Structures are given as C-alpha cells and as structure tokens.
Amino acid sequence: MAGREDGVAGAERSGSGGAAWAEELLDQLRPAGRNVRKVVAWLAESVGGTACLLDGDGALLAGEPVALDEKLVADVLAGRLASAALQDRERHLRLVRVGAPPPPAAGVLAVARPTPFDRHGAELISRTAAVLELLLRAHETASAGRRLERATAALRLAVLQLLMVEDTVSARRVAAGLWPGLLDADTARVYVMEGRRDERDRLAADCLDATGGRALVVLCPADDEHVIVVAPGRGGGSGGDGGQGAGDALRALVAARPGTYLGGSARHGLARTATGYAQAVSALAVARFSPHGAAMYAERTRPERLMDPEALQAWSARLLRPLGALPHHTRAELLATTRLGLEFTAVAAARILGVSRNTVRARMERAGELLGTDLTRLPVRAAVHLALNTQASLDPVPEGSAGDGVVRFADLLAGTAVRTWAQELLGRLTADGRDLRGTLRAWIAAGGNAERAAHLLGMHAQTVREHVRGAEPVLERRLLATGSDQYEVVLAHLAVGDLEPPALGGESRPG
Fold it and tell me: Locate the PucR C-terminal helix-turn-helix domain: which residues (predicted)?
C-alpha cells in the first residue's frame, strides 16, 4: 500500500502522472464507460486503499463496505459537513459528499487506506466525487425518462382499453392531460402495424413521429409484433378524414421499412374501436400478400354488403335486443368482450381488455345465455359476429320496415348476390385434387376441431389440418385463426346449403 502511495505522489511531482490519472478519470465519462462501480474500483486502486459510495440513505451503492461512523455520515449527507478527514486506529479515512444535500439526492464517497492522504490523494477523491455526481445525475435522468416512457405507455394502453369497452367519456378524460384534443373527434380509423418483435419499440416511436402526435399509438398487449394506432378523424361528418392522413403517413412508413405490414379499418365511431381493431387485424392478413404491404378492410367484398340493409339491420336488432336492455356500462363490457372474443382467443382478448381470460369466458357465456345461443358453435359465432358488425356500422339504413314477416338468418343468406358470392368463393377449392371443400364442411361442423372432423371423415387429424391450411391461400383467408376470415367461409357454406342454418333464440322474439 505504501509503495503505491509513493508512486502516486512521485508521479504528481514529476508532472506527467497528473495528466495520466486525469485522462483515466475522464475516460469514465465516455459512453463506453459511465459505470459507477468501475469508477469507485478505479479510485480504490489509484489511492491504494478501499472505497465505497453510499446513497442518500446510507446504503451501499458501489465498492467494498467501509466501517464508518453513522453520525459522521449523516452530517456529510445533510450538508453540515462538505467533507471529513480522520484517522481511525491504523487507517486514514476521507469522506466527501456527492451531490447537493438534502438526502436522498446526496451521497457519500468514503475512502480508507493505511497511509495518510496527501494533496494529490485528496484531489483525486474530490475530482472522482464530481465525476460520480455527473454519472449519478445522468443515471437518474435516464431512469426518470424510462419511468416517464413506461407511465406514458401505460396511459396509452389504458385509453385504448377504455375505448374498447365504449367508455369514450373516461377515455377522453384520461387522454386530455397528456394529449389535449386527441380524442375530440367522433370517428376514427384503427391501424395495426406489424414488424419484428425486437424492433417494436422503434416502430412505435416511428409511428408517433409519422402521425405527428395526432394518433393514439399503443404497443399491442396481445401480440408482441404489433403496434396499434387509433387515428381520430378531424370532425364526425362525412367530410372528416377519419384518420386518413395518418394512414397515408403509416403507408409511407411501411414502404420505407421492408418486412413491415399495415392493416387498416373502415371509419367507425370512436365507441366502435373494438370493431375497428378487429377489422384492422383482418386487413393485416391481406397486407402480408400485398405488394405494398398495406391493406384496408373495405378493399374486399364482404357478405354483409351483399345483403338487404333493412333486413340485415332488423334481424341484427332483434337478435341483440337482450343486450340493449342492460345498463350502459354492463352492455358496453359484454359487447366489447364478445366482439373481441369472437375475433381472437380468450387469452388475446383478455390482454387487449386488461382482464383475466376467465373474465372473458364468463362474459362470453353470459352473452350467449342472454342471446339464447351457443357461442361454442362456429355457425352461431358467425351469425352473432355478423349481427355485432351490423350494429357497429355507421352506414345509414333507410327508414321503413324489413317486410311483413320476421327476418331470419336463413333469409339473409338466401339472396342472389350472397349465394353468387359464396359459390364463387367455395368454387375455388375444386381446382385442388383433394376434397378441400368436404374437409372444410366437416371441420366447421365439428366446431373447428381437427380431431372430431377426422373422426367424421375417417382420416387422420393431421390430414384435416393440412387440408384446412391448404385452403387458406386458395380462399385468401385465414381459417385456423378465429375471426372474420373464418366466419366469412362459414357464411359461404351456409349460403350454398352445405351447412344447416343454426338455431338462434333471438329470431323467435317479436319485432
């Protein structure tokens, strides 16, 4: 130890060592350094002793523990002493305050060694304390920035979840503090952007920049590769852009980032964010095969657009009437959960809504009971999905009745336009040598369960899965994942008579 002290002192006297230790200390501030533990260890080695850094509560932050008088430490922390030097038996101690008092902002740098501290050793300690203060301040600033980012991300997610359950009043109230005016519009488009999982934070930041703070950007809680963007329109009338300006910016972002895809919804009322989200995810599946990597939900013919609008709305209203009798908050929760539960798995829907999967299942069961339907059956799910989407539509329906009789689900599917669409869609499967259509029919009848379908067909379950998977590119729809694509194929089978229409309790209610 003494030899080390003599060497340090000699270096200072020669004039060359002073520059060397100063350069070493400055190295600790370079981006590759900036490690408090390394700085304290470097100081201990430089003075030939032991060093430690205590925080504002006296707890060890870095270095090796040094036995210290608690009252002396408290005096330095409180600012009653800026520094202290003393001899304790066979060791010499120096304490220097790091940062400004009072605690917990301040800390103490303590150094002990068996030989007295000369002017060079004291200067080394004081300069190191200044470097440590800079490093701690930078670390706290970075930590505060990360905490702010996490808090902001949590707020964005909270706003999205409120929109998902149609609580636009609370959503606007939460958003107003950080993003004044963001949700003042009555309508919005929802976009889902997909990229690499390890680049999602960067992608979200780019979405924020691209939309200029005019959209709600949220890391999707259900899919680690997705970023959700809710882009409100500037005005609720037909002239509002419905988030179209944000959509153009997001398309440009996709064009500049290979391997990134964008799906967008139709324009919806802000309370129908859940419907818009489901549409955006459906469009995203199409975007993966698009040369531009982007697609909008309205770009593909939907069966509901081929049905008589008055009859469709009358049927939907009758089917969903039991939900309309519930208190607003309960109704909004059941509707949002049912929409998402029909589009995604219970786990994914739970993450989106911020509830447990058991809660999702319980709400789905209650909705099924109220509607008098069995939501475990694919044809029933397709019918309820159609009714919910019709209810969420902003397209005006002409005044008047839907006819003299009660409209039934089978009546909606019996129209010429719907049947022609269904025959064209399913007719694509005949080009394949395998009986894909027959396999699909059995698979749907079995509730999408490959094992049960295999038992009905007398084939292996893996063969059923291969047939269903083989039908996906032919039909340009995802079938193995629940959601809009799957239900469209179910509706097509019902329309051409390959499946019997399901029993829907709500159809028997008086209009």
Answer: 346-389, 436-479
Q: What is the pLDDT of residue 15?
A: 40
Query: CA angle 457-463-466, nearest 5°?
Result: 125
DSSP state letter for 293: S
Structure tokens at 172: 């606007």
Tokens of 345: 């798995």
What type of residue is 38? K
Total Cβ atoms within 10 A of residue 123: 15
The pLDDT value recorded for residue 238 is: 37
Q: Are strands 91-98 and 83-88 parallel, antiparallel or unpaired?
A: antiparallel
Give the helix/strand (H/E) hosting 188: strand 187-194
Residue 416 is classified by DSSP as H
CA–CA dist 159, 167 (Å, integer): 9
| Confidence (pLDDT) at 189 | 94
The token pair that represents 504 in the structure block: 């829907």
Q: Using CA atoms, how far apart are residues 347 and 353, in angstroms rounded to an integer?
A: 10
With beta carbons less than 8 A apart as the criterion, state whether 51 and 42 touch. Answer: no
Q: Which amino acid is at 262?
A: L
CA distance 487 to 481: 10
440 closest CA partner among 385, 488, 483, 479: 479
Q: What is the pTM of this model?
A: 0.66
Of 39, 485, 56, nearest to 284 (Cα)? 485
The helix/strand/coil state of 218 is: strand
Beta carbons within 10 angstroms of residue 414's beta carbon? 14
- Strand pairing of 261-264 and 294-296? parallel
Helices 328-343 and 309-324, packing angle to 10 deg: 120
Q: What are phi and psi of 125, to 5 degrees?
A: -70, -45
pLDDT digits (tens, 9 = 90+) for 41-96: 888 888 889 999 988 888 888 888 888 888 888 888 888 888 888 888 788 998 99
Contact partners, residue 78, CB within 8 Å, separation at least 6:
101, 102, 103
> Under a CB-based contact definition with an 8 Å cutoff, are residues 371 and 381 in contact?
no
Q: Which residues of the chain are under the pLDDT cut of 50? A: 1-17, 32, 235-240, 242, 394-404
> If DSSP states are collapsed to H, E and C, what string results for 444-467?
HHCCCCHHHHHHHHCCCHHHHHHH
Q: What per-residue confidence (pLDDT) applies to 391?
A: 82
Using left for φ > 0, alpha for ψ between -120 and 50, and beta otherwise, residue 415 falls in beta
Quote the DSSP letter at residue 508: G
- Burial class from Cβ neighbours inside 10 Å (0-12, 13-18, 19+) for residue 72 reads middle
CA distance 125 to 110: 9
Q: Of the candidates 476, 495, 496, which has an alpha carbon nearest to the alpha carbon of residue 486?
A: 476
Place of tokens 């697609």: 295
What does the block give as tokens for 476?
């340009």
CB 482 within 8 A of CB 454: no
CA distances from 210 to 204, 214, 217, 405 (A): 10, 9, 11, 52
Per-residue pLDDT at 174: 87
